User: Fold MALR1 protein from Calcarius ornatus.
Amino acid sequence: CSNPGSSWNNCDFETNLCKVLPEFNLQPGWIRRNGRSGMGPPYSDYNGNESAYFLSLSSEMQSSSAALRTSVFLPTDEEHLCQIRFHYWVSQMSRTLMVGLQKLSEDTVTNIWQVPGELRNQWNVNTITINSTEKFEVIFSGMVETQRQGESVAIDDITFSEGC
Assistant:
């Protein structure tokens, strides 16, 4: 993997500090863990490291979805698009990962990306580009239709470009 450089804000979840995701510890449903936690797959982060941390949906989720909100980003312009790159793991059809955009003037979240339906038990990587004329937040949502053992949604190493 090429290193996007230090101009990107990176959230690798190795520490509890993540400037762009100010409240990720307080989000019900998402937990910070590693592959050795005994909580089912994934058993390592996207680099194959069993002791490295990532976020995954808790199996004790009370509701069917859990949102992870970024801090508020300023409007983008043609020179500074906001690019968000992240690694994700989704096992089975009863699990979904969505990325949404919420402009501050709107109450609704616009879905801008959803995990594709082809499922492999492996880490994938994706980059989304956001163009917004007003301030906005980005929301990662994990959804669970039915609770089954051994199924999970996980996210790791979210990087935000300087246009965010």
Observations:
- The radius of gyration is 15 Å.
- The CA atoms of residues 81 and 163 lie 5 Å apart.
- Residues 1-6 have pLDDT under 50 and may be disordered.
